[in-house]
Design a protein that fits this description.
Blueprint: H1 5-56, H2 64-73, E1 81-87, E2 93-96, H3 108-111, H4 114-118, E3 125-129, E4 132-140, E5 146-154, H5 156-206, H6 221-256, E6 260-265, E7 270-273, H7 275-280, H8 293-298, H9 306-312, E8 316-323, E9 327-337, E10 343-352, H10 354-389, H11 396-427, E11 435-439, H12 440-450, H13 452-457, E12 461-465, E13 472-476, H14 477-493, E14 500-508, E15 511-518, H15 525-528, H16 540-545, H17 552-562, E16 566-572, E17 576-584
Parallel strand pairs: 12-14
Antiparallel strand pairs: 1-2, 1-5, 3-4, 4-5, 6-7, 6-10, 8-9, 9-10, 11-13, 14-15, 15-17, 16-17
The chain binds adenosine-5'-diphosphate.
């Protein structure tokens, strides 16, 4: 009920005023009452001592008539006072200051206060009866006669005045309290309104609206509170803006990073996960309301589950994940700890190392291939040389035949080394092309002419579909020749005798399109996407027999791509193979 400051202030004001006024009222009325009673007592004493006693000092107390006469003679006393004379022996009322015959002759002990009469010898003994003050004296006259003087002061008027005063005072208190309530209400408003303002603005701030400012209307404590509130709001706004900008930067970094990242708490609830992580693990949907981490990773590698890591008490580590036997991921994890070194969760980062692994494997395979390719001719050369040195040299025919084998194997090694050097130069982009503008039609004609003997050896029919107009290429003529010659040589190599080999050239969309087609053995589907790889050969023994190194097509692809072109292959086993080379046409100036 009295929760609000306003009601508390009003109640406090009310109580303060009420208590203060009540105390003042009680004190004043008490003092007033005491004063009046004392005044009545003094008046009674004065009447008795100064008026009654001198008046009756010569009177014979046995002569009641005289006494009555003397008493009646006394000037009229204030209406509220009465003096009675009582016989000290018989206790009969003898006389009264008021012409009051009611008590005269009556027994004082029965009609007046007994205590006063019996204690009258104490001279001035008092006893109050409701609104009457009684006082008793024993007076001895000059004849040594005793009489009891009984004084009465009627205080009803005084009490009436006092009661009236109390009523007036009560009314004054009520009025003061009403004024207090009104003033309290108004004063408390000046205190509570700014507080209410600060409270309502603070609640808006709590909901995220930091554009709150309170009006400062005074420089007292409430004004200072408002100033501090405004300062706090501004600081809070700045700090939150900084935090939110840092957070969004961090989120942007985490969401854009190429590595997958997930942060989970100690129970496996997801705190943060980036899109790369979801993509890498091919996850369809994640329920962040459940502790799903262990279920999610246990499919790929049980060693990454919180259960396992907690059991083994590992603080960080690295594991390999394989996704559908395709992607290879490295999962690095570390435990999140707070300042007290308590474990609070785990961060796991996924790196796609598929390419890295592939390259590593390729490198290993390449080294193995080179070693293997060199080992065969070296072994041949070594064994033939040893045989010659062991005496075969003396036989002229054997010597010639062995030397020609050694020569052939040396050529193979030289070709292999030269191909490898060329590839290495291209890999390191050190291949400085000797560029010039040339007509591709003419180049193809020259190549076909050069290979004429080879075509004839296998009785191949060569069909040329050349273009009417000149197609100009800007590039290294020797390299392009090397490519076309390699493809034509392969066509001859892998097409049985009497086969048909065709070379077509046309211009389309500013590109020279060269098609080299044969109806030879073809390439199986499973191998076709790999034939541009280094050392890849469909039939290794056959290729080697034919003097192939398995590097020709990979060199060709490099050269064409570095000229801004493209090379592709279509083939069907038993039906033949078709290579398509695309090269950009140089349109700058016609020759
Ligand atoms: P090689 O020196 O072995 O010919 P290449 O890189 O030139 O090496 O060719 C790679 C492989 O592609 C060959 O070993 C062969 O298996 C296959 N190939 C290339 N051209 C043809 C073709 N016209 N017909 C059938 N197979 C071919």
């Amino acid at each position: 009920m009295f929760k609000s400051i306003r009601s508390k202030i009003i109640v406090i004001y009310f109580l303060l005023v009420f208590i203060a006024m009540a105390l003042v009222g009680i004190f004043m009325i008490n003092q007033f009452e005491t004063l009046h009673i004392n005044t009545a007592t003094n008046t009674l004493n004065r009447i008795v001592n100064n008026i009654i006693k001198p008046e009756i000092s010569n009177v014979d107390f046995t002569n009641y008539e005289d006494l009555r006469y003397e008493i009646q003679k006394i000037p009229v006393l204030p209406g509220d006072y009465r003096i009675l004379m009582i016989d000290a022996n018989t206790y009969k009322v003898i006389a009264s200051t008021k012409n009051d015959s009611r008590l005269i002759g009556k027994d004082a002990l029965n009609n007046l206060n007994k205590e006063i009469i019996s204690n009258a010898s104490k001279n001035g003994y008092m006893k109050d009866e409701e609104t009457v003050k009684n006082i008793g004296y024993i007076y001895t006259n000059e004849k040594n006669q005793k009489i009891i003087i009984y004084g009465k002061a009627y205080l009803a008027n005084i009490y009436e005045v006092l009661n009236e005063s109390k009523k007036i005072f009560l009314q004054a208190i009520i009025m003061a309290l009403i004024v207090t309530i009104i003033l309290g209400f108004l004063i408390s408003k000046t205190i509570t309104n700014p507080i209410k303002d600060v409270t309502s603005k603070a609640s808006k701030m709590a909901k995220g609206d930091f554009d709150q400012k309170v009006d400062i209307k005074s420089d007292d404590e409430i004004g200072q509170l408002g100033e501090m509130f405004n300062y706090l709001t501004a600081r809070l706004k700045n700090t939150l803006e900084e935090i939110s900008s840092e957070k969004s930067k961090l989120n942007a970094i985490i969401n854009q990073m190429g590595d997958g990242l997930i942060a989970v708490d100690n129970e496996g609830y997801i705190i943060h996960v980036n899109p790369t992580f979801i993509q890498m693990l091919r996850i369809k949907e994640i329920d962040v309301t459940k502790p799903v981490y262990d279920d999610m990773v246990s499919k790929y590698n049980k060693n990454l589950t919180l259960k396992y890591i907690k059991n083994k008490n590992i603080s960080q580590g690295s594991e390999i994940i394989k996704i559908e036997n395709k992607d290879i991921l490295r999962a690095n994890f570390v435990y999140l700890k707070n300042e007290k070194e308590e474990v609070k969760g785990l961060i796991l980062v996924l790196q796609d190392i598929t390419e890295h692994e592939k390259l590593d494997n390729m490198r290993k395979e390449f080294v193995a291939n080179v070693s293997h390719e060199l080992k065969t001719p070296i072994t041949t050369i070594k064994s033939y040389t040893e045989t010659l040195l062991d005496g075969a040299m003396d036989d002229n025919e054997i010597c010639n035949s062995f030397l020609s084998v050694i020569d052939k194997e040396s050529d193979r090694m030289a070709r292999l080394v030269s191909d490898l050097l060329q590839l290495s130069r291209m890999d390191h982009k050190k291949n400085n092309f000797n560029s010039s503008r040339f007509d591709i039609d003419n180049l193809i004609k020259d190549i076909v002419n050069k290979l004429d003997i080879s075509f004839k050896e296998k009785n191949h029919i060569i069909k040329m579909g050349l273009c009417d107009k000149n197609i100009i290429i800007n590039g290294d003529k020797d390299r392009i020749e090397q490519v076309i010659q390699n493809i034509l040589t392969n066509a001859i190599k892998y097409t049985p005798d009497n086969g048909i080999i065709s070379v077509d050239i046309r211009e389309e969309d500013e590109q020279a399109i060269i098609l080299i087609k044969d109806n030879g053995i073809g390439i199986p589907k499973k191998d076709i996407y790999r034939i541009f790889e280094r050392f890849y050969r469909v039939d290794k023994a056959r290729s080697r027999d034919m003097g192939g190194t398995g590097l020709g097509l990979s060199i060709a692809k490099h050269i064409i791509e570095q000229h801004g072109g493209d090379i592709s292959v279509k083939s069907e086993v038993g039906k033949g193979t078709e290579f398509e080379i695309k090269l950009p046409v140089d349109k700058s100036v016609d020759i």
